[in-house]
# Entry
Amino acid sequence: MRRPWKKAVVTGAVFGDEGKGKVVDDLAEAADFVIRYMGGGNAGHTVVIGDRSYALHLLPSGIFRAGLTNVVGPGVAFELKIGTHEIALAKAHGSTILLDMGAPVVLPIHRALDLGRELAARSQAIGTTKQGIGPTYGDFWMRRGVRLGDLRSESRVREALTRGGYWKEVLALGHFLDLDDCLAADSLSLGMDPMDLDATVRWCMQHADVVCGHLADTRAIIQEADHEGKRLLFEGAQGILLDTFQGTWPYCTSSLCTPAGVSATFGIYRFDRVIGITKAYATRVGSGPFPTELDDETGEQLRQRGHEFGTTTGRPRRCGWLDLPALRYACRMGGVTELIITKLDVLTGMNLFVATSYEENDTRSSLTAEVMANAVPVYSAVPGWSQDITTAKQWSDLPLAARGFVGKIERETNVPVSGVSVGPERSQLIWT
Ligand code: IMP
# Structure
């Protein structure tokens, strides 16, 4: 249902890649501000407009709506090369971009450290996107590193890189991880030596002109806009089960994916709608427990039919049946007030199953990595449908079985489903 709202959060409900970009693009039509609140270049939000498909990594998915203000908040790990590229795209579509001065900058050394740590971890690697996310947030919480506002002068950047012996530590870590060898073995296309201080300062300043034209105190602006009753749409990255606290730590990302990320960064605590996005089945990229994973033909069928290959990394995604205990838990921990089910069309013509519980699981326990790794799903068969649903325009166009599938999700999670998506296009989102 297209319900009115003033403050809404869109977040991935499970392991990310659920199709938030499309939902944000749709809701953005009624928004005054679209605000990306966490994550970085690890995210890949796809928006399809006509015959063009755009993959965004950093800027909010509202940039395709002219006249909107798109905000990158202080909690976003901002990679300058990706960011400046996307700013040019936003300008071409006539939207305004504001970047928070406090947002941490992802430096080339962060990407190199991400790679180096993953290689050093061998079989225990997390399977990160190698976008430097963990090292950037790590430094940020350690109160080190460059922030976007530092790009206003070369001396500020240099000071930020050397303050308190920061760069000396970086070099020691780089040598400890044999970064020279790692980079020779697996090129990140950095185009520079990430351990070279002067080159890093130059790299930052190369992007300074573009960035500085958009710097703002976005927290003050959003607080003011909230006070004036403007419509604020907050776009999360990844999913609730990849959140550092609520997810399957250490197999998670290094930021807050739930609405807590909005509260922590913008001081906004009440929302009219918290929209969790889930696929009609389950996917995961990287390592970590995945109870309903299908390591068989059906999994491969889901992967091919759903084009389940990473937007950022191109990696094949792990696929499986919808995991309702995980979704139920994620909705609770993320304060989700409604769900949108994406990729319902992918299930057409299949014999369907969903996991409704885990064997011998205490339903009160948190779904930690350990609990999930030991979970044995109990499946329930669900009636399928064979009609093409990609041309459905409204809820009543969907076959009874497809509506029944959605109804089962509502009953099992106790969260209403407000929309379903039956294809990648803007027009293929149906509000129930
Ligand atoms: P990082 O965020 O690159 O450090 O990766 C940590 C974990 O989160 C890995 O398992 C990644 O595959 C996963 N991850 C990070 N970003 C995304 C995303 O946008 N979609 C799905 N998984 C993600």
The domain at 106-211 is CATH 1.10.300.10 (Adenylosuccinate Synthetase, subunit A; domain 2). The pocket of inosinic acid is lined by residues 15-17, 42-44, 126-129, 131, 133-134, 238, 242, 251, 253-254, 285-286, 288 (CB under 6 Å).
